[in-house]
C-alpha cells in the first residue's frame, strides 16, 4: 500500500475514535450514574440511553452491511431507536461494550482491503463511505449526549 493510503487509513481511524476536535464518545458515555441514563431533560425527545443505543444499532448496521451481503438492516427509523427511555438491567454495559467492539471490527475492515471499491451488495457504497458515515453519525450523537449531560448538570 502507498504511504498516502496508509495516511488516509490512520486519519479515518482517528475520526472513528473521535477526540481530534471534540470530546470522544468514551468521554461522553463515561461516569453516567444509572439514575440519569433514562432522563429526557426539558422535553427533549431522547434520553442518554436512547442515544447510546441508537449509536450502537446504527453502527452495527453499517458494520454488518459493509461485510455481509445477506445482512438485513432494521426498519428505518423505528428499529434504530429503542422505545424505552431507560436501559433494562445490564443493557447499558452491553450497549457500551458493543459500540466499542463493533468500532474495532470496522477498523479491521479499513485495514483489510480496498476501501474505495464498491461494496458488491450495495448501491454504490464503499468502506470509505461507510467509515465517514459512522464517524459523522457518532460525532453528531456524541454532541447530543454531551448536551443532555450539560442540561442534567453531569458534564465536566
UniProtKB/TrEMBL annotation:
Coiled coil (UniProt feature): none
First and last residue of the signal peptide: none
Pfam families: DinB_2
Superkingdom of origin: Bacteria
Residues spanning the membrane: none
Stretches assigned to the DinB-like domain: 23-145
Name of the protein: DinB family protein
Amino acid at each position: 500500500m502507498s504511504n498516502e493510503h496508509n495516511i488516509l487509513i490512520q486519519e479515518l481511524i482517528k475520526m472513528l475514535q473521535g477526540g481530534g476536535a471534540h470530546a470522544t464518545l468514551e468521554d461522553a458515555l463515561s461516569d453516567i450514574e444509572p439514575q440519569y441514563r433514562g432522563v429526557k431533560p426539558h422535553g427533549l425527545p431522547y434520553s442518554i440511553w436512547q442515544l447510546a443505543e441508537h449509536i450502537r444499532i446504527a453502527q452495527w448496521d453499517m458494520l454488518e452491511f459493509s461485510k455481509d451481503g445477506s445482512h438485513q438492516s432494521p426498519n428505518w427509523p423505528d428499529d434504530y431507536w429503542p422505545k424505552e427511555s431507560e436501559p433494562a438491567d445490564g443493557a447499558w454495559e452491553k450497549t457500551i461494550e458493543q459500540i466499542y467492539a463493533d468500532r474495532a471490527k470496522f477498523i479491521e475492515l479499513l485495514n483489510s482491503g480496498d476501501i474505495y471499491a464498491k461494496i458488491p451488495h450495495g448501491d454504490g457504497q464503499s468502506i470509505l463511505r461507510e467509515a465517514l458515515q459512522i464517524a459523522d453519525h457518532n460525532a453528531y450523537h456524541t454532541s447530543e449526549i454531551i448536551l443532555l449531560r450539560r442540561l442534567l448538570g453531569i458534564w465536566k
